[in-house]
Design goal:
The protein is globular and about 100 Å long. It has a seven-stranded parallel β-sheet, with helices on both faces. With 634 residues, it is an alpha/beta fold. The longest helix has 23 residues. The N and C termini lie far apart (59 Å). It has five domains: 196 residues, Rossmann fold (3-Layer(aba) Sandwich); 127 residues, P-loop containing nucleotide triphosphate hydrolases (Rossmann fold); 100 residues, Winged helix-like DNA-binding domain superfamily/Winged helix DNA-binding domain (Arc Repressor Mutant, subunit A, Orthogonal Bundle); 74 residues; 64 residues, Orthogonal Bundle (Arc Repressor Mutant, subunit A). Strand 10, helix 10 and strand 11 form a beta-alpha-beta unit.
Length: 634
């Protein structure tokens, strides 16, 4: 106990652990397979970083997001904790060098993207890595019934055979009971497994939902009334720009952010927002993961999310400093109708998926029987234009092909430029003597990037050019020549969307899909949609309570500060009035079915919010049933 407390204080500067962190760490140190369900901002990283530091050996961290890996590795290095990462897009040389350093260097953490786990090279080095813990971040990705299923996660369990006795810690911010069970099953948890779920209660976060005809006006009203930093989430890239321009025109300092921007522009916008130079960032869900900003006062969803899993994570970025913050969702009725029809669009017929695959391999000019392990820069808009395809058909067909483990498509791919020296020190000295024109560049690399001689180091061509007082293009030319001479291995940065083939090209008629799993994933999506719609439509149940119950947190109490709780406080209804409304509802329903839309005008003698209170009560007591098509049946 003193050991983990000392580690927490030494490296993170905290005197005490947050709720459940200590219990999770002790379970891991006791060798137990552990599932930790901690809400956004709940301190998941400490749960695997502290026990890994308390033991000899290396912690293997599986993470799907390159940007998040990069941030965590940099943060650990700043604390004096050596860490490495291996991800998609790295060359064999870079991976080998990184694994050699992990095996023989004094490193404590190795971050790995899931698709790298079963490569022959990784498995060759695995026995020599002295793994003390396997930490699976974003563990909901392992479940086909979750909202972000990624097939490579299913292969994590296979490496456990190489690491007997090494515990697994699975971490996620949002997973239903069904998904939690699936995570433990798919990661081959032992019988003495431990599960920890932090309450979904956020006593400082006020949730509200508004059905508005003109979202622009409501957005401006909210942003003017709530001071401080904010995020506005939109579903389309085009809308992020439109909404940002609307805010700016009305005197609110704003900018937009989406995955279609270059990495440099995204980073610059993100930094300006973190420093409060931009008050409101308008973005797609490409924004927010791994960003540590505690003073966000406002998160607005301008469009309805697909599921409470997404909504809870994104809304939860508000108020991490535990001061009052607001999560607001704007909608109109048509959005809910559209959302209910999404399942047919999200899960296109198999023949459509096959047609997209056929067009894809032709577009990339991929010969039959080849492709496995090959990366391609992929311009989806050019592809759609050349083959006259529908954007939704293509996007969701690619998702099906990913979930069937045929391709991997990364729209937010970014790999920084890297350099590593390939000559030994004596040969490098001889080269410099013979080629003095490269002396400044070689010395600049060695002085600017620690460890660049031993393993691939991320570099910034702009920063290095400034340091050497030269032009960026001249520097790049010198780096390319040094690579030609065999002095360095130079990999220029990539930030275009990347498409990776996981299998060789398959003849379209031989392309097989698991129809059973496709159908189950479709049903799981429809269930998530209904959860989202229920959250929006319910007007007299605490919103925090609805979210908590959805994630199997049944102990959560009414928050008292969401719109529903406030309406409940303001709504006084006597028993006599309650009985009058109840009798009238029963009379109007009679033996027939009636929609809520038809019912409300016939009860105009009563206040609408009181009618809804009675309807909600009758429904909760199973006196009436509210069908998904809107029919109320006695």
């Amino acid at each position: 106990m003193e050991n983990i407390q000392a580690i927490l204080k030494k490296y993170w500067g905290y005197d005490v652990f947050r709720s459940l962190q200590q219990e999770i760490i002790l379970a891991v140190l006791d060798g137990k397979d552990t599932l930790a369900l901690l809400p956004t901002g709940g301190g998941k990283s400490i749960c695997f970083q502290v026990p890994a530091m308390a033991r000899e050996g290396l912690c293997l961290v599986v993470s799907p997001l390159i940007a998040l890996m990069k941030d965590q590795v940099e943060n650990l290095k700043k604390k004096g904790i050596p860490a490495l990462s291996i991800y998609s897009g790295m060359s064999v040389w870079e991976v080998k060098k990184t694994l050699q350093n992990a095996a023989h260097g004094n490193f404590k953490f190795l971050y790995v993207s899931p698709e790298r786990l079963e490569s022959a090279l990784f498995l060759e080095y695995l026995p020599g890595l002295m793994i003390n813990l396997i930490a699976v971040d974003e563990a909901h990705c392992v479940s086909q019934w979750g909202y972000d299923f990624r097939p490579p996660y299913l292969r994590i369990a296979a490496i456990r055979a190489y690491l007997p006795g090494v515990p697994v810690l699975a971490l996620t911010a949002s997973a239903t009971k069904e998904v939690q069970d699936d995570i433990c099953d798919k990661l081959a948890f032992k019988k003495d497994q431990q599960r920890f779920q932090k309450s979904f209660e956020r006593p400082n976060l006020s949730y509200s939902v508004f059905n508005v005809a003109a979202k622009q006006n409501k957005l401006l009203e909210i942003c003017k009334n709530v001071k401080g930093s904010g995020i506005v989430y939109c579903k389309s890239r085009k809308r992020t720009k439109e909404v940002s321009e609307l805010l700016s025109m009305n005197g609110i300092v704003s900018d937009f952010y989406h995955a279609g921007l270059t990495n440099a522009i995204r980073t610059e916008k993100q930094e300006r927002w973190i420093k409060n130079e931009i008050r409101i960032i308008v973005c797609t869900n490409a924004f927010g993961m791994g960003i540590d900003k505690s003073d966000v006062r406002l998160v607005i969803h301008y469009d309805v999310p697909d599921a409470l899993e997404n909504y809870y994570q994104e809304a939860g970025r508000a108020g991490r400093d535990e001061k009052r913050a607001y999560a607001v969702l704007l909608f109109h009725d048509k959005e809910l109708t559209d959302l209910e029809q999404q399942s047919a669009i999200r899960y296109p017929p198999v023949e459509q998926v096959k047609n997209v695959y056929k067009a894809l391999v032709n577009y990339l000019q991929l010969p039959s029987g080849l492709g496995e392990g090959l990366y391609f820069d992929f311009d989806i808009n050019d592809f759609i234009k050349k083959f006259t395809l529908n954007i939704h058909t293509v996007s969701y067909s690619l998702k099906v092909l990913e979930q069937e483990d045929i391709i991997s498509y990364n729209e937010q791919f970014f790999m920084p430029s890297t350099v590593v020296f390939t000559l030994n020190k004596n040969d490098l000295y001889q080269f410099e003597k013979s080629n003095p024109e490269f002396d400044a560049v070689i010395k600049g690399l060695l002085r600017s990037y620690e460890g660049i001689y031993d393993y691939p180091s991320p570099i910034s061509e702009i920063a290095l050019a400034n340091f050497l007082k030269t032009d960026k293009n001249e520097l790049i030319n010198s780096l390319q020549k040094l690579q030609t001479f065999g002095v360095i291995e130079y990999t220029p940065q990539k930030d275009k969307p990347q498409l990776l083939f996981l299998q060789n090209r398959i003849n379209t008629q031989d392309l097989n899909f698991n129809i059973t799993n496709l159908s189950k994933r479709k049903l799981a999506f429809e269930k998530r949609v209904q959860g989202m719609i229920t959250y929006i439509k319910k007007v007299l149940i605490c919103r925090s309570k609805m979210i908590g119950n959805y994630f199997n947190d049944m102990s959560i109490k009414s928050c008292g500060i969401c719109d529903n709780c406030i309406n409940e406080k303001n709504l006084v209804i006597s028993k006599e009035e309650f009985d009058k409304i109840r009798v009238e509802i029963y009379r109007l329903i009679g033996e027939n079915a009636i929609t809520a839309k038809e019912l409300l005008p016939k009860l105009e003698m009563f206040k609408k919010n009181k009618i809804w209170k009675v309807l909600n009560y009758l429904q909760s007591e199973n006196k009436i049933r509210l069908h998904k098509n809107g029919l109320i049946v006695k």
